Amino acid sequence: MGINVQLSILKVPAPPPLVDALQELVVESAIDMAGAFSLRFGLSADRLGEYGLLALDPFKPGLPLGIRVGTGTAPIPMAVINGFATGHRAIWAEGGKSSLTVTGTDVTGIMNLEEKVKPWPSLPDSAIALAIFATYTVIPKVTPTPPRLIDPLGTTIQRGTDIRLLRRMARRNGFDCYVQPEPLTGLDTGYFGPPVTLGMPQAVLNVNIGAQTNVRDVTARYDMLRPTTAITANIDTATKAPQVGVAPASLLPPMGIEPAGVRTLAGAVVAGGLPLVRVADPSNVLVPEGQAAVQGMVDRSSFAVSVEGTTGAEVGVLRPGALVALRGVGRVYNGLYQLTKVRLTVAEGRFEQRFTARRNAVTMTGAEPYVAV
């Protein structure tokens, strides 16, 4: 299966000699951390003792880089990361083993550079996310959030970098927050919304299914005590009215017959205990705000099942945030999962994807769409 790697610098395709010198490409992307990449190029000296790639010095600080990878299943190489170089490592060795490794990060790494103290008066979290994404020319894909307090009663104060604020707001709403390029256009898209649990899978992962097998290994983990219930009870300092939020169960659509939270609560009742988190928030909050906070905590806790595995190019290029359908591991673990992390490695004669995925239920429904889009 042919692998096509395309590299761009300043939105312009890199010259062929540079691409031909590429020995290894590693791209790590996830829904909860900055994307990163590593490019290893071979170095060779000319008659004057100069190393052409080092003399050319194409990877300067701040220059935008783009990486696309195509497999035999995709006629057009998919954009896997846009970013900026953050470092070089040059090695001189005998036997043609000299190399230059360029490391870099996506735009969320840039969003973590400047510490800020900034008020965001009278704005819900989703409006703040829209404004921050626009600052970095990232196309927003933002889900609306409940209203927040209006000055002078209160306001959101940013104390830290932009991406830390975004992820803090995402956590209190039970959201995912990440940036990744749109596969075809390559334009960066910022996602700020609930975890994806329904829809068509990006890929079907087959384990021990004869000729259809496309996963080399899979490890499943089930944290049975992770799901919880949550409650918050505060007082509005202006009206002295109680502000109560209660979340007994996750409201996310379950990805299997038995929701993980329901199984944990049922087991806790039998054992004589009840998992409960009492969320401590400032007293001056709105009811929708407090309710969203506890519901978000419970929704996040429901992802008690995770899998890790390795696959090749047969499934195409995997993307964090998307769904995959896993089968061949038994009815308890078969079903839909949301990808949370992918480490893509491309080298001569090698294409490997190490993935991590999660789900909020166990036991397949029997209606899983084992057809990739």
Tell me briefly what this model is.
The chain is of the alpha+beta class and 373 residues long. 17% of the residues lie in helices and 39% in strands. It has helices at 16-20, 52-56, 107-110, 125-135, 162-173, 260-271, 287-301; strands at 4-9, 12-13, 22-30, 36-42, 64-70, 78-91, 99-106, 116-120, 139-142, 156-160, 176-181, 188-193, 203-206, 215-222, 229-235, 242-247, 258-259, 276-278, 305-311, 323-327, 335-347, 350-359, 361-362.
Structure, explained:
The two termini are about 20 Å apart. The protein is built from seven helices and 23 strands. By secondary structure, it is α+β, with helices and mostly antiparallel strands. It folds into four domains: about 5-110, Baseplate protein-like domain - beta roll fold (Phage tail proteins - horseshoe like beta roll fold, Roll); about 115-195, Phage tail protein beta-alpha-beta fold; about 205-225 and about 305-360, Baseplate protein-like domain - beta roll fold (Phage tail proteins - horseshoe like beta roll fold, Roll), CATH 2.30.300; about 230-300, no CATH class. Helix 4 (about 125-135) runs antiparallel to helix 5. The strands form five sheets. Strands 1, 2, 3, 4, 5, 6, 7, 13, 14, 19, 20, 21 and 22 form a 13-stranded mixed sheet that branches. The chain has a three-stranded mixed sheet with strand order 9-12-11. Strand 6 and strand 7 (about 100-105) form a beta hairpin. It is globular, with a radius of gyration of 23 Å.
